[in-house]
């Protein structure tokens, strides 16, 4: 009677089956170790980034506004620097700077002077991310006592479903400036006066408004 | 620098090679009646595998060169199902080569018939339980037929590689060469073991369509990855064994190939890690690492197997001449392909590259006679053993037609989804 299995496919020596068993044991061990690495290991971050690609994510955002007001007295032809520090501890919660807004107001305080002072202003800030803004007005001038408005804004994100992005991209979607930066407003006054020696300085009000944004939640759709 | 155009040129070269080998093997199968029926059955399945690859490359070329709108929607599903059809040939070859694992007709036929049933069952299973079911079915079949079935080849290797019988050693060598030929694309990604290659390497060669399936099913990813570790560990087993085996039993081809895949994997991981995904060289390299292994390396290996283990009867002068012609064409295509790769990172003027290819060919054809005669030595030592009468002559036609029908069914199934 013929045998069902090809006799060549069976080991004639004990060592053949033993070697096969050793290979199988190593295989199982490697698969277990490998699976553990995939599930728990550091590399799983890379893998997940790759594997979570091209999906839809529902992202919700939160906003927070920081304000500050300063009054400065600036003498004729002088410049003052007003600084606002965006605290770095906000980064712990993932806050990012979405908009910097500065409003400068003043009025002619010199008695009887009908010519308003000329105020020029500009601002700058530490650049940590180097991400381009979507709109900016970083300098201004006023000689008729109207307020000077300066601002710099990065893309504003609204709650919604974001398509065809990886999980990593979704987590880093806030392309804006980081917190922990100093915003410096440079303000110069030129006292234009119709009355000689009557107007040497001016009170300037500087209002900072910093809008922060962070990701509240990310959910796969 | 080379770009998508070069990728298409590589595909066209692979297309020609697959068509040539597939057609020739098919011709040998039905023409060469002197060779035993089991060898001819193996040759037939190899030819069908090449003809399916030929269709894949033809569709890829059409998709890249055609301006026909909507080509992607029609052709992409066909790729998936044609690949499933080719995985089925993997299963058949692992069952039958180097020697059928059953010695009686009925069990081997049941085993062969069960493979398409398994294939369809996997599609239905994926359809019922998985969101991205087409990709999941593809991945399951790839893992099963190229991963799990590699255990058969590895068993042949472990049982007989150090045997004192040359015929038995031939089985070990033939089995592992078959595994290299079939799952070479997986072997070029061997650093995925322990995640050495990072995330990019996992999906290399599959195309982006696998990502969604992996994303939505972590168990699928783990099962797929675990099964592809089988041939990867097999590669290490072969490499270590070939280094340690006594000199008189050493096989230079297997040693060279295992070293080749080992080094290829190292280069592969360096390319993935250090070259940006949009650089032309990386695009071409990834294509070579994945498609190139079954478009360019597999034909060389299978021609070697057919000649070395007498799957064709080289005693017949007509067949011997045709096999030599194939060997010359292989050299030609390989020289051209090599230059496509070289030109990707070292631009060489067309006229110069044509001259260099000419020089390589003249050397290749000069040495071809000697190399061919060396490989194609007809000796009893080079035959494979095993049951010879488990198939009938008409089984060849039946298997060929069943494969055609099964492949068409799969493709149609993909098109109507």
What does this entry look like structurally?
The complex is a heterodimer of chains A (221) and B (417). Chain A has two domains: 12-51; 55-220, Jelly Rolls (Sandwich). In chain A, 19% of the residues lie in helices and 44% in strands. Chain A is built from three helices and eleven strands; from the N terminus they run H-H-E-E-E-E-E-E-E-E-H-E-E-E. The radius of gyration of chain A is 33 Å and the shape is rod-shaped. Chain A starts with 13 loop residues before the first helix and ends with a strand. Chain B has 417 residues and is mostly helical. Chain B has 15 helices and no strands. Chain B starts with a helix and ends with a helix.
What's the total helix number of chain B?
15
Number of strands of chain B: 0
Q: Which blocks of ≥5 consecutive residues of chain A have pLDDT under 50?
A: none
Oligomer: heterodimer
The pair of chains with the biggest contact is: A-B, 37 and 40 residues
Strand content of chain B: under 5%
Structural class of chain A: alpha+beta
Question: Biggest sheet of chain A: strands, sense, closure?
Answer: 7 strands, antiparallel
User: Number of folding domains of chain B?
Assistant: 1
* CATH architectural group of the largest domain in chain A: Sandwich
| Low-confidence segments of chain B | none
Strand content of chain A: 35-45%
């Amino acid at each position: 009677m013929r045998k069902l299995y090809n006799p060549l496919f069976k080991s004639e020596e004990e060592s053949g089956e033993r070697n096969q068993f050793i290979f199988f044991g190593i295989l199982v061990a490697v698969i277990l170790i490998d699976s553990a690495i995939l599930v728990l290991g550091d590399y799983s971050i890379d893998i997940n980034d790759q594997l979570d690609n091209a999906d839809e994510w529902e992202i919700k955002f939160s906003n927070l506004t920081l304000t500050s007001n300063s009054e400065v007295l600036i003498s004729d032809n002088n410049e003052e620097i007003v600084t606002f520090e965006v605290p770095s501890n906000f980064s712990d919660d993932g806050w990012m700077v979405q908009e910097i807004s500065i409003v400068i107001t003043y009025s002619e305080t010199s008695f009887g002077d009908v010519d308003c002072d000329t105020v020029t202003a500009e601002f700058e800030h530490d650049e940590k991310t180097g991400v381009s803004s979507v709109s900016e007005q970083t300098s201004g001038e006023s000689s008729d006592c109207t307020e000077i408005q300066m601002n710099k804004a990065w893309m504003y994100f609204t709650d919604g479903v974001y398509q065809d992005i990886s999980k990593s991209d979704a987590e880093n979607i806030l392309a804006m400036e980081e917190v922990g930066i100093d915003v410096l407003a440079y303000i110069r006054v030129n006292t234009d006066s119709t009355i000689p020696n009557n107007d040497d300085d001016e009170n300037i009000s500087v209002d900072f408004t910093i809008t922060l944004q962070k990701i509240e939640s990310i959910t796969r759709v | 620098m080379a770009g998508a155009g070069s990728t298409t040129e590589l595909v066209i070269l692979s297309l020609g090679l697959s068509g040539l080998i597939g057609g020739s093997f098919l011709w040998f199968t039905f023409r060469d009646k002197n060779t035993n029926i089991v060898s001819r059955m193996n040759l037939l399945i190899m030819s069908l595998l090449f003809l399916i690859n030929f269709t894949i490359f033809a569709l890829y070329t059409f998709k890249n060169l055609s301006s026909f709108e909507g080509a992607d929607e029609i052709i992409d599903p066909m790729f998936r199902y044609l690949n499933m059809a080719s995985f089925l040939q993997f299963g058949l070859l692992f069952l039958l080569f180097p020697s059928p694992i059953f010695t009686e007709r009925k069990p081997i036929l049941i085993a062969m018939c069960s493979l398409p049933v398994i294939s369809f069952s996997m599609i239905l299973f994926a359809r019922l339980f998985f969101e991205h079911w087409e990709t999941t079915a593809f991945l399951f079949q790839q893992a099963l037929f190229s991963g799990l079935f590699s255990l058969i080849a590895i068993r042949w290797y472990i049982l007989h590689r150090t045997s004192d019988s040359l015929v038995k050693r031939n089985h070990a060598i033939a089995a592992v060469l078959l595994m290299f030929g079939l799952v070479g694309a997986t072997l070029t990604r061997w650093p995925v073991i322990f995640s050495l290659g990072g995330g990019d390497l996992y999906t290399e060669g599959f195309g982006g369509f696998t990502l969604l399936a992996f994303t939505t099913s972590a168990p699928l990813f783990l099962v797929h990855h675990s099964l592809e570790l089988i041939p990867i560990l097999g590669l290490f087993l072969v490499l270590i064994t070939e280094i340690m085996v006594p000199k008189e039993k050493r096989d230079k081809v297997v040693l060279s190939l295992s070293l080749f895949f080992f080094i290829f994997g190292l280069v592969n991981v360096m390319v993935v890690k250090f070259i940006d995904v949009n650089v032309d060289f990386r695009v071409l390299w990834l294509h070579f690492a994945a498609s190139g292994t079954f478009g360019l390396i597999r034909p060389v290996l299978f021609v070697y197997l057919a000649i070395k283990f007498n799957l064709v009867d080289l005693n017949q002068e007509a067949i011997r001449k045709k096999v030599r012609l194939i060997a010359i064409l292989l050299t030609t295509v390989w020289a051209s392909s090599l230059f496509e790769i070289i030109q990707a990172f070292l631009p060489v003027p067309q006229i110069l590259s044509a001259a260099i290819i000419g020089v390589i060919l003249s050397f290749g054809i000069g040495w071809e006679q000697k190399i061919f005669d060396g490989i194609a030595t007809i000796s009893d030592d080079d035959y494979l053993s095993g049951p010879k009468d488990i198939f009938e002559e008409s089984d060849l036609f039946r298997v060929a037609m069943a494969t055609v029908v099964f492949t068409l069914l799969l493709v149609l199934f993909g098109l109507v989804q």
